[in-house]
Specification:
Number of domains: 2
Strand content: 25-35%
Shape: globular
Strand order of the largest sheet: 6-5-4-7-8-10-9
CATH class of the largest domain: Alpha Beta
Oligomer: single chain
Bound molecules: S-adenosylmethionine
CATH superfamily of the largest domain: Vaccinia Virus protein VP39
Radius of gyration: 18 Å
CATH topology of the largest domain: Rossmann fold
Distance between the termini: 54 Å
Structural class: alpha/beta
Number of helices: 8
CATH architecture of the largest domain: 3-Layer(aba) Sandwich
Largest sheet: 7 strands, mixed
C-alpha cells in the first residue's frame, strides 16, 4: 500500500495547536488539517503517529513513562502493579509507552473526543479495559477509582490549550487514595509568569501537604511545524495524605 504524504506548513506565526499540515492519502484524497482536529486525525489510521510522533518528534509519552517508572522504582515499588487512568488518552500512545515500561494491568482511558476510543481500539486493541468518552467532570472519578481500583492518574499533552483544566485535574486528583501517583506533562509556560490556573495548581501541589512532588523536569516536548523546539515539564507526584 502506498504511504501517506505529509507536508508540514512552515508558518511560525501560528499558535501551538493551530499549526497546519497537508496529508495526501493513498487514494488521492488531500486534506489540510491541524493536529488539534482530533476527530479527523484519529479517523485516519497511523496519521497521529506519523505527524506527532515521527515528524514532530513528540517525546511526551516516553518521557512521562520513563519518569513515572523511575519514580515508582525509587520508591521501592513495582511499576507492574500500577492501575492507570490515562486522561486525554487519544489513540493509546501513552498507555502503550507505560505498557512498555512494565505496567501490566489494562488501562482505563478517558477522552471527550468521540473518535478517540474507536481509534484506540483499532490501533491498540486490548490495551484499555474501559474507555470513557467524556471529560473528567462528566464522570464520577471517585466511582472509577473504586470500580477499577485505580492508583495512578496520568496524562501527556493533556493539560492546558483548552484541554484538561485546573478544576478538572484538581478535582480528579483529590479522588485518588493515599499512595497514588500523578504523572503529567505540560508546557513550560505553565511555570512562568503567565502560568495561570494550571501554574497555581502546580504551586499548590508543591506547597501543600497532601501531595509530594517527586520529579519536575524540563524536556523537549516536540518540534513545531516550522521546526522550533517546544519545551514542557514532566511532573510526577504522590498522594501523601
Ligand atoms: C495532544 S493530545 C495527546 C494524546 C495522548 N495523550 C498522546 O500523548 O498521544 C490531547 C488529547 O486530549 C484530549 N482532550 C481534550 N480536552 C480534554 C479534556 N477536557 N479532558 C480529557 N482529554 C481531553 C484530546 O481529545 C486529545 O485526544
Amino acid at each position: 500500500m502506498a504511504a501517506m504524504e505529509i507536508t508540514l506548513h512552515d508558518e511560525p506565526e501560528r499558535a501551538q495547536g493551530d499549526e497546519r499540515f497537508t496529508v495526501e492519502l493513498p487514494d488521492g484524497r488531500r486534506e489540510q488539517l491541524r493536529v488539534h482536529d482530533y476527530d479527523k486525525v484519529y479517523a485516519i489510521p497511523g496519521l497521529y503517529e506519523a505527524v506527532v510522533q515521527e515528524r514532530l518528534e513528540c517525546a511526551s509519552p516516553q518521557v512521562l513513562a520513563d519518569a513515572l517508572s523511575a519514580a515508582v522504582a525509587d520508591a521501592g515499588e513495582d511499576v507492574a502493579a500500577l492501575r492507570v487512568l490515562d486522561m486525554g488518552a487519544g489513540n493509546g500512545v501513552v498507555a502503550e509507552s507505560l505498557r512498555g515500561r512494565g505496567v501490566r494491568a489494562p488501562f482505563v482511558g478517558l477522552d471527550p473526543e468521540p473518535a478517540a476510543a474507536p481509534a484506540a481500539a483499532r490501533d491498540r486493541p486490548g490495551l484499555y479495559r474501559h474507555y470513557f468518552t467524556a471529560t473528567l467532570e462528566e464522570i464520577s472519578v471517585a466511582g472509577a477509582v473504586a470500580e477499577y481500583d485505580l492508583t495512578c492518574l496520568a496524562g501527556a499533552g493533556a493539560l492546558g490549550l483548552g484541554h484538561v483544566s485546573r478544576h478538572q485535574i484538581e478535582t480528579a486528583w483529590s479522588a485518588f487514595g493515599v499512595g497514588s501517583w500523578l504523572a503529567v506533562t505540560f508546557s513550560e509556560a505553565v511555570l512562568g509568569p503567565e502560568g495561570g490556573e494550571l501554574g497555581a495548581f502546580v504551586t499548590a501541589l508543591q506547597e501543600g501537604d497532601d501531595t509530594d512532588v517527586v520529579r519536575l523536569e524540563r524536556f523537549r516536548h516536540r518540534l513545531t511545524m516550522s521546526g522550533e523546539e517546544l519545551f514542557y515539564y514532566v511532573l510526577v507526584a504522590r498522594r501523601a495524605a
